[in-house]
Amino acid sequence: MPEFTGLNLTLTDHIAQIELNRPDKANALNGTLWREIGEAFRWVDETPEARVAVLSGAGRHFCAGIDFALMGELLDEVGEMKPGRREERLRRIILDLQAAFTALETCRKPVLAAIQGLCIGGGLDLIAACDMRYATADASFSLKEVDLAIVADVGSLQRLPYLIGEGRVRELAFTAHPFDAAEAQAMGLVNRVFADAAQLGESVQIIATGIAAKSPLTVRGIKQVLNYGRDHRVADGLEYVATWNAAMLLSDDTREAVAAVMQKRPARFAD
Q: According to CATH, what is the number of the domain 216-263?
């Protein structure tokens, strides 16, 4: 298992726990943490024993967005470069930052976000790439980039319209309006709200355990088909799932699932 400095990664009972670990900085995203997020979720994707992932933040807050020190470092890196090369390098840096968050979306395993405290700016971009989001009642959200004179560029403007609707995203992006967990649930950003961090952690663990007990092949297929259907026409999505099931329906997982139902016992699936 890889070791990281900006986050904690563990794997127990097929559940990968990825915890942002800069609590003294409200888990603000510096260059190291940003890179390690991508590496951690690529590891989850490539590790058969990992069937589902839970993303959380150490301390009082989930993520306070980009670390201002990182912005300074990026400006210093490109500041002395000549025109043309400077812009090309900055574009490459942005694409690399995008890829770290896209790793959550392309990870074949479901990713559950457990959110407490602040989730603003880059933190909101991060959870937008997750499959499900759960929050404490005191969680606070904001699409903060406009207040820094930045067009949000690592996923919120592309992913949030599918989750909460384009009109709502435009309001949040233009105004940086802060909103609480109840409003986040009402708009469809978070699935459920829990009283406190202890209840949040316990409940998300139960959900993850339930997913981990399902056929890994089928769970991965559901995520793949859902992501494909989001980005294509309904007819294309139906064609895709027909092709997927033509290849996968005769798997050992299907036979085991049917046998377990008939024998009234828990199913046992290979990784």
A: 1.10.12.10
Q: What is the mean predicted confidence (pLDDT) over 4-9?
A: 96
Q: What is the CATH number of domain 7-212?
A: 3.90.226.10
Mean pLDDT of the chain: 94
Main-chain phi, psi angles of 30, to 5 degrees: -95, 180
pLDDT for the residue 76? 82
| Helical H segments across 118-251, by residue range | 122-128, 156-164, 166-175, 181-186, 197-212, 216-230, 234-248
Spatial distance between the Cα atoms of 106 and 118, rounded to a whole number of angstroms:
25
- Cβ-based burial of 46 (10 A; exposed 0-12, middle 13-18, buried ≥19): exposed
pTM assigned to the model: 0.93
The pLDDT score that the predictor gives to residue 72 is 82
Positions marked active-site: 66, 122, 125, 145, 153
Domain ranges for the chain: 7-212, 216-263
Phi and psi, residue 138, nearest 5°: -90, 10
What's the token pair of residue 235?
Answer: 């007819």
Condensed to tens digits (0 to 9), the pLDDT of residues 54-86 reads: 999 999 999 999 998 888 888 888 878 888 888
Number of H helices, E strands in the chain: 11, 9
Q: Which residue in this structure is represented by tokens 């309001």?
A: 171
User: Which residues, in sequence order, are CB contacts of 57 under 8 Å at separation 6+?
Assistant: 19, 20, 23, 27, 63, 115, 116, 117
pLDDT tens-digit map of 158-206: 999 999 999 999 999 999 999 999 999 999 999 999 999 999 999 999 9
Residue 2 Rama label (left phi>0; alpha psi -120 to 50; beta): beta
Report whether 111 contacts 129 (CB < 8 A): yes
